[in-house]
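Record type: monomer structure entry
Structure origin: computed from sequence
Chain ID: A
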Amino acid sequence: MNKVYHRIEKIAGNVITIKADLVKYGELAVVSSGFGTSLANVIRLEHDNVSLQVFTGSRGIATDAKVRFLGNPMQTAFSESLLGRIFNGIGIPRDKGPAIKDNMTDIGGPSVNPAKRIIPRNMVRTGIPMIDVFNTLVESQKLPIFSVAGEPYNELLARIALQAEVDVIILGGMGLKHDDYLYFRDTLEEYGALSRSVMFVHTAADPTVECLMVPDVCLAVAEKFALKNKRALVLLTDMTNFADAMKEIAITMEQIPSNRGYPGDLYSQLASRYEKAVDFDGNGSITILAVTTMPGDDVTHPVPDNTGYITEGQFYLRNARIEPFGSLSRLKQLVNGTTREDHRQIMNTMIQLYANYKETLEKQSMGFRMSDWDSKLLKYGGRFENELMDLSVNIPLEQALDLCWTILADCFEPAEAGLPTKLIDRFWPSKG
């Protein structure tokens, strides 16, 4: 029988402090008062002072409330029945369906032993040319989507959820507006992707502590699916809201702040989540795409800055497009040499010519006379942006590569493209 404590020493915000012994960090407790019961979890241990974050808030909790520790950390259920379901940040159904309590598993465990990992080797196809052709997503990769408020990053995640060639989609929302939550739900349901998806959604109106639980719950479920030989894609939005929730709790706990008020362990907290990305030897994989909004479009902000040290590249979403400059998949070379023999060459050539197009735009804006080559670049750049960069474009990789050749042939002569002769002889479209 777990011991029950009857005295709360301190209440600050949604954090309560009691004196207790033999308690573990992250352990769950039930707080009972005249207003009912609520779960809480241990977020700080200092000698016999134990601080707990109350999930539903501390309003109505008196100093004589009862606190009973459960002896285990936060857990989530796992079964195939999760597919098609929508839950809040701590696993309580949002969709009015039955609660699932099968195979309860701890969340927030350690990342996978490196000896059990294998080198990533499989492409995750998305149907988005700016990803598939130019910054290929690889199974077990961890990539952030750097953006600013107002950009369609949630729409991009929804498209990836619909089109990615994986077995399971696990969507984690943190601080979502209710409209965004409904957008994800309705889009996945309308296009038939909800049946292979699990959603854990924390809205801006929900308790802050639930926001902190979302990545851990998503990744714990993803790990279970991966161990059943499933390719799991975890989509998280928005990790800046996750970091802000950490910041809010740290302020409540009167911790000494670090850069811009964020806690000093921000890097470790982010890394412990991102490092769950893995390709299991003999089993499935976990791939992570996580939106990170940059306040003021400042990439040196602590959240994107720390993220960049952990992850394997990034996508920059600006002006409703994935930018070719700055966006990077550091693992793409592991797979794009095995897709089609022209993939790497066409990728490099298209980006180089697009860079030349940008320089031509600057010359044009300053009133320089345009040469025939400049005119070709202007035509090329317009087609590149409209037919490849536009996020509404949805075509398979091979078709996207063929489109690249078509654009080149429409704008340049074969000798001007700078491609190997053997590739030109094989792929250059014939006139007429």
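Annotation 1: The chain has eleven helices and 19 strands.
Annotation 2: Residues 13 and 252 are 6 Å apart (CA to CA).
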